[in-house]
UniProtKB/TrEMBL annotation:
Belongs to the UPF0337 (CsbD) family. Residues 32-44 have a biased composition (Basic and acidic residues). It comes from Novosphingobium tardum. Residues 6-56 form the CsbD-like domain. It holds the Pfam family CsbD. Gene3D superfamilies: YjbJ. This is CsbD family protein. Residues 1-60 are annotated as: Disordered.
Length: 60
């Protein structure tokens, strides 16, 4: 079950990060852009974690 939670959290963080980046581009806010990129990366890591948990049967 950890696999699905990590993947869902990862997708959510990626979507929010992408939204922050789009708003930052529209408002010319470099700080928001950096926070959006960081959140997007966090989501990518969470998805990889979910993939690993799935491959290892949630044993990690």
């Amino acid at each position: 079950m950890g696999e699905l939670k990590d993947k869902a959290a990862g997708l959510t963080n990626e979507a929010i990060g992408n939204t922050k980046q789009a708003v930052a581009d529209a408002t010319n806010d470099p700080s928001l852009d950096q926070r959006g990129k960081a959140q997007e990366r966090k989501g990518e890591v969470q998805q990889v974690s979910g993939d690993l948990k799935g491959a290892m049967g949630d044993d990690i």
